[in-house]
Amino acid sequence: MEYLPDKNSSYKDVEYWDERYRTEQHYDWLGSFSNFQHLLEKNIKKEDSILILGCGNSNLSGDMYSAGYHAITNMDYSSVCISVMSARYSSCPGMTWHQMDVRQLSFSDASFDVILEKATLDAIMVEEKSPWEVSPETSSFIHQALTEISRCLKPGGRFISITFAQPFFRKRLYARTEYNWSVRHGSYGEGFEYFVYVMTKGEQLSPEDAALEKKLLEEPKSQPSGIPTRQNEENNDFLCNITL
Ligand SMILES: C[S@@+](CC[C@H](N)C(=O)[O-])C[C@H]1O[C@@H](n2cnc3c(N)ncnc32)[C@H](O)[C@@H]1O
User: Fold this and answer.
1) Structural domains counted in the chain
2) Ligand 1 centre from 180 Cα, in Å?
3) Is 2 contained in some domain?
4) Which residues pair with 72 in a beta bridge?
5) The predicted structure's pLDDT at residue 130
6) The pTM is what?
7) How far apart, in Å, are the Cα atoms of 3 and each of 10, 14, 23, 31, 48?
8) Atom of ligand 1 nearest to the CA of 27
């Protein structure tokens, strides 16, 4: 509780994360590697080049390194985070750390086999009032990030997104023809369910996802009613309510 911000919108501010990472040693949002290792192992080979977005001070990179994934590039927009984490893992050859914004990745096209994010896009979406209708600002932010992610993926590469967002909310953002990937998902967690989305570059959207995209393009304002949402029940205080 020590690091809870005064207001939820702080999760979007780099100043909040810089301050937090000055003292906090470690925190793993949405659980740790062992909780979803079985899902990652199906989609990542040991020799794959991996980019972790918004790495924070999570143990994910270190745990994956110990499990045999050695080509891990990490990025976060918090300079404090990058400085602390690069010092912590200085004895791990193949692991690199970069301060960067997820909307502007300074990597060449088709650089990575796998791009992985855990709770980073959730933090960016934290102020959204309705998961059915993301605000134009957040929509544009996420679109810039997804465009960059798609650009940096090799053909056949996978973008893996670990989040608390349920498929009927998150698929609306990920299932778009212009990113040139398919979308699959699995889940993990007991009591509280988390989701692992796997987007494979160069594969087509399933007919169901293509139909969803078409529907959203035709009816951009449509908002299904009557379906209870965990977010609504929790008064939109998404991240504060995550129990690990
Ligand atoms: C909820 S934390 C998740 C940290 C870590 N991935 C984990 O699973 O524990 C969100 C992280 O995203 C980073 N972040 C937020 N917005 C970002 C952006 N625009 N570009 C890069 N990193 C960002 C924050 O600094 C923070 O480390």
Assistant:
1) 1
2) 25
3) no
4) 50, 95
5) 76
6) 0.91
7) 11, 14, 10, 17, 34
8) 9
